[in-house]
Predict the 3D structure of the following.
Amino acid sequence: MQLNIIILTYNCLNKIKECLNSIYEHTKQEFNIFIVENNSQDGTREYVQKITEEKNNIYLSLQKENLGIIKGRNRGYDFSTEIKKSDLTIFLDADQIVLSGWLESYLKLIIDEHYDLVGCESWKMREKDFLPYKKITDKKEKISYLGGGGMMIKNEIFEKLGKFDEAYDFIYFEDSSLCFKAYYQGYKIGWNYNNIIHHNHTGPLLNPKNKKYFLKNWKTFQLKWKNYKVPIIKTIS
């Protein structure tokens, strides 16, 4: 199956270097990388332009402004389908590092176990107000949704779901909303708990400067899904 990898960059020079190096070191199958460069000012923009010239499977979309996570990922997906058709797309964060066997682990779930949507990070959401309150670490625990970083999905299903909902602004809740929609449309959601992608995240998960987006999108999410229950997804027998 053909794979496109979508990565957003914004002022992350050292991290995108590590991310790309890990992909080339640990990926045996054929792949293409599509980078959406969100107007970095720290040398990231120049680096990804240079590496795009050096590699024949990296494609670059340069932005005049920071599109944010949600529009950026959709832009990356649309850009990728214009250049190289694929069966699968994975959305990686620039601060994620893939480990040996990462893609084989995903493909086993997608091909052998027939999952439609697979992620490496999973979360529990509170029923009464849809607050994401717990990152899941126990593979036997039921999950509510998958995080967008490290999310692999079949292209035909991503398009049927309408891609990431841009009613959410900039960052937060687009991944949970996509998973809710997939769950209620009967698609099979799986958590890849095999520790094959390391998230080199520093600082609080809820960045203080992005708190306004969290609160705004949380309200949007509550209104959109108020008549639904939080999914209970069992990913291991």
Observations:
- DSSP finds seven helices and twelve strands in the chain.
